Every structure is written in structure tokens, then in C-alpha cells.
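Workshop exercise sheet. Pairs work together: one partner reads the sequence aloud, the other fills in the structure field after running the prediction. Swap roles for the next sheet.
Pair: D.N. / O.F.
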Amino acid sequence: MFFDGYNIRSSLVASRAKHDEMLQFAATHGVKPWVETFELSEKGIAEAVEKMKGNKLRYRAVLVAKDA
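Structure field:
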């Protein structure tokens, strides 16, 4: 998919059973994701892309809609 020059992709990396096993392990051991959030706006997207291009983005980056 292409949106205004951005390319969005996804893929399945393991079977459903393997995902269930990993999620159970995470729940049992209190493993939680490291998430960095960016505002879902031109400014937020630009900030996220800049961090990515500067190799400063780590783990998971999530675009979050502004509060109404």
C-alpha cells in the first residue's frame, strides 16, 4: 500500500499456535512492549520519519489520533 509516498507493509512471521505460546509466555512473565507514540498528524508523522531516518527510532512506533 502507498499513502502519499509512505509504504505500509505487514507479514505473518509465525503460526497462530506459536503466537499464542509467545503471548502466554509474555503474560506469565510480565513482558510488555516498549512503545514510542507520535501524534497522527503531519507534524507527528514527520517527527517519526525523521527519527527513523536518523536511526534513532527503537522498538515500536505508533501513530495516535489526537484527543477531540
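Discussion prompt: The beta strands are 2-3, 6-7, 35-39, 60-64. What would you look at next?
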